[in-house]
Amino acid sequence: MSDIVTFGETMLRLSPPQNERLEDVDEFEVRAAGAESNVAIAASRLGATASWISKVPETPLGKRVVGELRQHGIDTDVVWSHRGRQGTYYLERAGKPRGTNVIYDRENTAVSTAKAREFDIDRIQNARVFFTTGITPALSSTLRETTANMLKAARQGGTTTTFDFNYRNKLWSPDEARETLTQLFPGIDVLVIAARDARTVLGIEGDPRQLAHRLGSQYDFTTVVVTRGAEGAIGWHDSVVHEQAAYETDTVSSIGTGDAFTGAFIARRLHGDDVPTALEYAAATAAIKRTIPGDVALVSKEEVDAVVKSGGTDLSR
């Protein structure tokens, strides 16, 4: 039995070296990348047992994804498919004014046809936490139904459901996202959402503390975490609002920072921490992740402990 089971698509990320342009590149850095598997890895690194479930093409690229996740110590329970393809995305990094560009290539992927009945639902119902994100139902109408069914099954089994809103404007419009994701809210215990998404997609105004309180009260969540980038995060639990500042960090890569935060928060709550302590560890894990290339938080519990205990000072001194 796993502490946490996550469900969603993991892609292959292809990145030109340094800040080269895609149109001129002759080699790529390749890594597995997906919000749900990133969360599983971060939770695992902080001591939780984690599983990732998905539908994957039985191709060399699909096997590449599964193999990399297993190397990170994640239990993978996949439905191998002979139809559909492996999703990819291209990350072209650059500073201002060009900015970093993400190009998705995830049409007609194997996971877009996944249905709840294809998976071992007992695995979800026997876990302590089931986690998925708003990215998954954005990928297909089938996955919208599947996500709802899995959340329902988790709740029926007494599993805590945790959901990262994770709005992506390259996948769907704010109106589409709001209509679909609010229908999932009754099946969610813990919501993680960026302050900008609460405003842009849900149309909820106010400062982050007000956003957290309004979301918790309006939709009857057990816990709401509102992230706000460099300004830290807000946690709402039992009608009490807790504030956590971000730790100072020298950023190497910001990709996957939110997933590292969420994975650590879940792991520490599973460990028995209260919300303020879990937020503290989540912020420390996110800060360390920003110093690591790629999407995955290759952190250790010991170094996260050290950041928390030091208050975020430079550990190399």
From TrEMBL:
It comes from the Archaea. It comes from Haloterrigena turkmenica (strain ATCC 51198 / DSM 5511 / JCM 9101 / NCIMB 13204 / VKM B-1734 / 4k). The lineage of its organism: Archaea, Methanobacteriati, Methanobacteriota, Stenosarchaea group, Halobacteria. SUPFAM superfamilies: Ribokinase-like (SSF53613). Belongs to the carbohydrate kinase PfkB family. Keywords: Kinase, Transferase. Signal peptide: none annotated. This is PfkB domain protein. One of its GO terms (molecular function) is kinase activity. InterPro entries: Carb_kinase_PfkB-like, KDG_KDGal_kin_Halo, PfkB_dom, Ribokinase-like. Residues 1-295 form the Carbohydrate kinase PfkB domain.
